[in-house]
Fold this sequence. Notes:
Blueprint: H1 6-16, H2 21-25, H3 31-38, H4 46-55, H5 60-63, H6 69-86, H7 90-103, H8 109-125, H9 131-142, H10 161-176, H11 180-196, H12 203-220, H13 223-240, H14 243-259, H15 264-280, H16 284-298, H17 300-313
Amino acid sequence: MGIYAVGEVIRRNRESIGMTQEELCDGICSVETLSRIENGRNTPSRANFERLMERMGKTGKKYLPFVRSKDIENHLLREEVERLISVHDYRSAERKLQELEEHLEMEDAVNRQYVLRMKVMIDSGLGRSSAEEQREKLKEALQCTIPDFSNVLENNGNMDEQEMRIICNIAMTYMEEQKYDRSIEILEKLKEYLEKSKIVHSIRIQRLILSNLSQTLGRKGEFEIAKKIQLDAAELARKENNAGSMVGLLYRIGYNGEKMKQGKNICLSQMMQAYVLAQCIDNQYMLEHIQKHIIQEYGQNTWDAISICLENHH
């Protein structure tokens, strides 16, 4: 056996035993995801690679030495770039993205699209570009795989999750410009598109859409509906085991509760849950943000008492 890409290993084995894509991926991933893996456009997690191989009567671990190591390395680099962005460490994310770009085949449209999107997010975090400039770059990224996306949410075509994340990002550029209705319109259409899609998409993209929609509604001042959607998004984050997303959601749930004049003890408790979780994942940005908010809204004495409590707990 030679050295093959991950997707090629899966495809060769599947075809050799006459198994369809639908039969192979049932309960593991969507047919679209498997197709993209076999075509080299997506890289499965190591766990899913092993599950797919085991369903074909193979031992996944046995085949890992025959998979191009750079596929696994690139996948891990992507995860690290996204983790660094999630904790607002944009300088480190930029260095990792540069490292990743050196390893990727940039003539591939999906790779170009991914890198363009990550650059926009990093530039946004570092304050290098306006919302309008970010939006134009995101549209450029989307056009890598969808040349005409003017009515993409109304047609019956199938988008992958990277394309949907780009549309989420575009919606959020409108939020930054305080064009809340336009942002909400895009996100609600994307939510509807996902609900009507015949393809089973990951919890991650469902949570992302709800989280962005709730954030925009909160900015618009529609705190009650924003909080309801945030609770739904938090449940998805729990199922996804995504602590990073849960931090922001818990904080915004508490914040919207304050705006709705709910009990201060309840809101403060939600803020503290977010703070403790941020400590667990070492999200310094959110730790500082939550501390500043509590001091501003509840007073320095309240924060001092919380600090003593946390120190005693540790």
